[in-house]
Each structure stands twice: as structure tokens, then as C-alpha cells.
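Complex 419.
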Amino acid sequence: MEKLVVKGPTPLKGEVTISGAKNAAVAILPATLLIDGVCTIENLPNISDIKISCTILEKLGAKITWNDEHSITIDTSNITTTKAPLDLTSKFRASYYMIGAMLSRKGEIEVGMPGGCKLGARPIDQHIKGFELLGANVTVEKGKIYAKAKKLKGCPIYMDIVSVGATINVMLSAVLAKGTTIIDNAAKEPHIVDVANFLNTMGADIRGAGTDVIKINGVERLKGNATYSVVPDQIEAGTFMLAAVATKGDLLIKNCITKHLESITAKILEIGGNVEDNGDSIRVWCNKRPNKATIKTLPYPGFPTDLQPQMGVVLSLANGTSTINESIWDSRFQYTEELNKMGAKITAQGKTAFFEGVKKLSGAPVYSSDLRAGAALVIAGTAAEGETEIYNLEHIDRGYENIEEKFRSIGANIQRITE
Ligand code: EPU
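Predicted structure with EPU bound:
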């Protein structure tokens, strides 16, 4: 068993470079199934979700060459099966993108029910609604999803809920459909724009990604033969911004798109931190105890749920009592119990948590319940006095590239230990 041991408190200082976005990359890889040929994808984050995704694509018949640890050339001209390996697809959430992509490419797919972080109920009814409106038959039984279609036909699709996954999945299934699909009430996250940019680079005709109406004119085929670089990770950048505030540090966060970070910047300024926006890098520093705040997580451009636990660490150390309302997931406050073991005073009731700010946290053994909870605990351990041991690292490794190396490079005393 592995654990991270963090000794604090350390104000994080220096420069850190952001990797490619996990939630864009895990959709772009299945999107290569739409290409009848070869393409190169660069700036892939070196994380376990990407490795699993590549293995699934290989099992479907794709040929992958690793150019370096962040770049692959993938040939999807010979897809040999429509059965994705159930054990692998059930391991992570984004395996549901195989459905949209394979429906387009082969008109058929069988996958395991998607896994991923346990954040409460994670229905996929909006994905299924989209596939069915485009003309597919979808059945869910015995932990498997089976979808089949003769020829998908474009149509208007109104999303009852703003969903990142359903928006991308419908985009994937509509790219090669006959006619035009219009997704209304679409999600607007940067990774949606990135997947659309990737598909358009390969020959798709998608307009309006990044707004709540996306129009997809179906094309005959995607030509491939192009290179695409994944957008920088908004959530990893936000994680380091909040780490700078929580540890009273000073970080220059490089290779990010600061436009994607506006909701985080606004909250950091509100609680008394400092932000300098340089367009493709952002400096964040804080030399005093942050002020209390009220946060509500919302779809983009609102405050992201994927930064809620990291913000929770900041607010657990703030002056006064703060409130976070988690409006996306039913169960994203599990980390608060771990922070309370470190001396925080947080009361979580359903989708709201109250943070009575304390002056300091102290190290303790803690367990990461999911990916972003794990990142929050690394920040908390760095800010806390004494030694924190963080367990369940598989969650963190799914989505953060070399987390301990990146934290060490900005001054944290953090080691990965195999017991
Ligand atoms: N929802 C439905 N029906 C659906 C789809 C979603 O009711 O068919 C609900 C969900 O239960 C949730 C809300 O709609 O309450 C939003 O869910 P969404 O579909 O947007 O989430 P997702 O696509 O499953 C992605 C990210 C999550 C991130 C959310 C919200 C990936 C692989 N995952 O999940 O990322 O929290 O969007 O931004 O892109 C993470 O990276 O730590 C993570 C959990």
C-alpha cells in the first residue's frame, strides 16, 4: 500500500507548470474512434485514466505509438470489435464516451457501466436520451450498456440538465450522423470546447461549443492526419491557485488559460488573496489569513465543483464562518470528515457545509475518498503543522500528474512511501 507523507507547514513558493486537461483528454481519446486514419495527440496528462483509456482503445483494435509520455500517435483505421473490455470500462467515468464514438463509427457498442469517483448518484439518462433521439436503441442490463443504431440522424436535442458528459457524448454521436443536430442547454466547460476543436481539426463541422447551443452538421468522414494538443487543465491550475492561498504562499502557475480561471480568481480576490493575470500564466499569493466566503458550485462559468474540496481547505483556515453549497453532486463533502481529523471545524448537512475557520490545522492520518478530495488533503497536509499521512492514492493518481513531484518542486516536504 502506498501513502503520501507530508510535513508542514510550508508556504508553497516558486513556479509550477500545468499539464493537459484530464477531462478533455479522456474524451478526445475515444473521439479518435471517429477517424478512419491516424492522428497525433500531444499534451496528454501522464495519469492512470489516460493509460486505461489507451488500453481500451487498443483492445478495440487501435494501434497506439507513444512518442513520449505526453504524446501518442493513434491509428484507428482498423477497429476490430464492438465489445469494450467490461473490467476496464467500469474502472472510470469517461468510458461512457466509447458509446457515442462507437455508435458513430460502428453503429454498435457494449461497455461496462461507467465507474469513477463516488460523488452520489451519477445517472446517464441524458446521454441515453440523446442517443435514442439520434436513432439508437440503448439497453442497460447486468452492469452493461448495449447500444445499436443503423444510421444516426441529426435532430434537435434539449438537455434537461446541464451535463458535461452528455453534451460531449451527443457531440460524438452526431458528428457523422446524417443532417444537423442542435444541442440546447449544452454544458460550456473548457473541455467541451476542446473536444469540439479537436473534432473540427479532424474535419467535423461543430459550431457554438462554449455556448449553450451547439450545432453539429454531420459530415461523411473525419480525415485525421493532424496533430492536436490538449488544452491546459483548468482544475489542476485552480488546485495550485488555492494551494498558494491555503499555505500563504506565492506561486507562478504556468501553461494555463487564465480566462478559464475567472471564477476562482474572483473568489481568491474576495477572500483577500492576490492574483496577477498574465494570460498564459497566473501568479497567486497571499500573506494573511483569508476572509470567510460563500461559495456555490455551478456549471461553467460558475465556481467548479471539482475545486470545491480544495476551496474547502482554504475556508477551513479562514477568518469567520464560511458556507459552501454543492449544487452538482449529492455527496462531495466526504473530505470534510478528514479535515476535521486535522482540527478543522466543518459541519456538513446534505449539500451544504459550514466552515468555522480555525487558525491552524494539524497533521493526521487521512483517507482520500475521491480525486479532488485527495488533492484537497495534499493542500491541507502542506498547510498543517506536523505530519499528515494520506491514503487511497489511486484516486489522486487517476487525475493529477506527478502530484508529489510538483508539490515538492514548490517547496512541500512530501514523500510517497510504499508500506
Ligand atoms: N446528470 C444527470 N443525468 C445525466 C448526466 C448528468 O442527472 O445523464 C447530473 C449529474 O448527476 C450531476 C449533474 O448532472 O448532478 C452534472 O453531471 P455531469 O454530467 O456534468 O458530470 P460528468 O460528465 O459525469 C464531469 C467530470 C466531473 C465533473 C462534472 C461536473 C469528466 C470525466 N468528469 O462529470 O469531474 O465533476 O463533469 O463538472 O469529465 C473530476 O474530475 O473530479 C470529476 C468528478
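The first strand starts at residue 2 and ends at 8.
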